[in-house]
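Many introductory courses stop at the sequence. We go one step further.
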Amino acid sequence: MKEIRVPKARFKYNMNPFVQQARHGKTVIVTNDGRDEFEVVPCVPLGKPPRLSGALDRAAYQGIDLDEPAFESWEHKL
């Protein structure tokens, strides 16, 4: 996979060409003062999500309510 490095100021004011390059498989690394700050990467193609090959082993989840949310909602903290 090819990488492209671009200063953050250039990326900020001319983002579209770099997003297009990411869509076509390139990784765009955005730098700040010469240090890597973040990446724009191509997305994994959509498809069917993976499925379990067998039934869920409920014994492995003993004591855990699988119908309850795993984490507290962040929406109530806004």
